[in-house]
Amino acid sequence: MEFSINAEQLQPQNNSSLLFVYCKESKPEQHLANTLLTQLQQQQKDFIATHTVKDEFLQALAVVNIDKDDYASIQKLAAKAASWSKEQSSLNIDLSKLPEILAQKWVQAFTIAVGEAVYCFDKFKKDSKQVLLEKINYQSVHPINNHLSKAEAIIYGMNICKDLGNAPGNICTPAYLASSAAKIANDLGASARIINETEIQEMGMNALLSVAQGSTAGAYLIELQYHGASNNEDKPVVLVGKGITFDSGGISLKPGAAMDEMKFDMCGAASVIGTFAAAVKLKLPLNLVAIIPTCENMPSGNAVKPGDIVQAMNGLNIEVLNTDAEGRLILCDALTYAERFQPKAVIDVATLTGACIIALGHVAQGVLGNNQQLIDQLLQAADSINDKTWQLPLFEEYKEQLKSNFADLQNIGGRPAGTITAAAFLSYFTESYCWAHLDIAGTAWNSGNNKGATGRPVPLLLEYLIQQS
Questions:
Q1: Binning pLDDT at 50, 70 and 90, where does residue 14 land?
Q2: What is the DSSP letter of 323?
C-alpha cells in the first residue's frame, strides 16, 4: 500500500474516495461534508459514509467527527473508518480542519488501523483475496511525516510478527525462524548470527537444550545486532523473545483441545523480530540487540522428564517439575547470554503463563522486573500507543515458592501467583542488569473466528525504543 502527503488544498480525482476528518473546532467548507458533519453532531455519532455523483462518477465519501482527543478514543474511531476505507481503491483524506496535534494523532492511528484492516494471512489458500485499497493520500497543512513513518514502521513490524506467528508449526520450525530472522536483518543492513546446537552445548546452555531434546527439530540461538547510535560502544537495549515454535507441553502433555494454537508460542520471538526490523527501518539512533532462543517442546523417549535436574548457563541447577513450564528454561539461558552485551536494559517477551490470562484476560499484557524506572518507561510507552500493559509485583517472598529439595530452584511455583513466580524464576538470571519481563500469553493471538496473531506488543516495544532514542 502506498501512502503520500500533500500540503495543498484537496483536489480529489474522480476515482478517489474522500474522507473528511473534523473535530469540535472544525468549520467545513465542502457543502456535503458540512451537511454530514451536522447530521453526525445531531445524532451524537462519530462516523458516517455515503455516495455522491461527481462528473457522472459515483464517488464514496465519509466524514469522521473526533469528539475525544485522547489516543485510545482516536484509535477506536480510526478502526471504524479503516473498515470502510479498505473497501475503497484509493483514498484522499482531508485533515486541513484539524489542529496539529490531532492531525498527527489521526495519521498515526488511522495508518495503523488500515494496516490491520487489510492484513490477511492466506498464503496457504487456493483462492487468496486481493487488497482493494492501493493508495492513501493525506492532505494536511501540518507536519505529519514523522508520524506517518512511525505508523508505517509499526505496521511493517506487526506484519512480520503476524506472518511468523500465523505460519503452521511444520513450516515455521526453529530452523525457519532462524533463517527468516537472519534474512530480515540482512535485508535491512543489520547483522545476524545463528548459533547452532553444538555451540549452544559448548556455552553450557543446558536449560535450553533440555527443552529441545525431545524434538528432532534442533535448537538455535538467534542474535541480531543493529548499531544506530553515533557511538558503536553505547550500551544497547537487548530484546529477548521466547521462540517455542510448537509447544505440546512435552511429557507434561497439554490437553488436545486447541493445541493447534500452540504454534503461537513463538509470538514473543516474532514480536522481537518485528520490533527489531521496525527500529532498523526507522533508523533509530540507538544500538539494539535481539536474542531469540528457539526450539520445539515435544514428548519422546529423549524428552526431559518431570524430576530431571539440568544446569543452566549461569551454573544454577534447576529441578524440572513440569515440562510444560519450558519457556522460562529457554529464556533463562538467553538472559544469561545477554550479559555479554553490557546492556542498557533487557526486555524479554514471552507467551509464558496461562496464569496471566486468568489475571488480566486478553486485554492487557503483564509487566514485571527488577528496575522500576524501566517498568515506568514501558508503561508510559504503552499508554502513549494504547498497547495496554499492567504491572504485577515481584516481591522477594515469591521466590519461596521456587525452593527445591534437590536443586538450586525448581521451574514452577505452584498455582498461586503463577505469572509472578515465573518472573521470579527469570529474575535469578537477570541480577547484573536492568530487566523487565512482558508476559503476552493473553494478548499475542486471538482465538475463535478471528484466530490469528495480533502483532502485539510490537507497538509498545517500538514506542519504547523511539522514546529512548
A1: low
A2: T
**Rounded-to-integer distance, Cα 131 and Cα 248, Å:** 35
Query: Could you tell me which residues come within 8 angstroms of residue 38 by beta carbon, excluding any fewer than 6 positions away?
Result: none
Q: What are phi and psi of 430, to 5 degrees?
A: -130, 25
Q: How far apart are CA 402 and CA 121, in angstroms?
A: 41
Determine contact, residues 458/278, Cβ cutoff 8 Å: yes
359 Cβ contact list (under 8 Å, min separation 6): 366, 392, 419
Cβ distance 296 to 215 under 8 Å? yes
The pTM of the full predicted model, rounded to 2 decimals, is 0.96
- What SS3 state is found at 317? strand
The DSSP string of 21-74 is EEETT----SHHHHHHHHHHHHHT-SEEEEEEEETTEEEEEEEEEE---SHHHH
Confidence of residue 140 (pLDDT cuts 50, 70, 90): very high
| Dist. CA 409–CA 241, nearest whole Å | 23
Query: What is the separation, in whole angstroms, between the first and last Cα of the chain?
Result: 28
Output phi, psi for 138, to 5 deg.
Answer: -90, 130
SS3 354: helix
The catalytic residues are 254, 328
Percent of the chain with pLDDT over 90: 90
Task: Give CA–CA dist 389/382, Å, rounded.
Answer: 6
DSSP H or E segment with residue 364: none
Q: How far apart are CA 207 and CA 199, in angstroms?
A: 14
pLDDT score of 128: 82
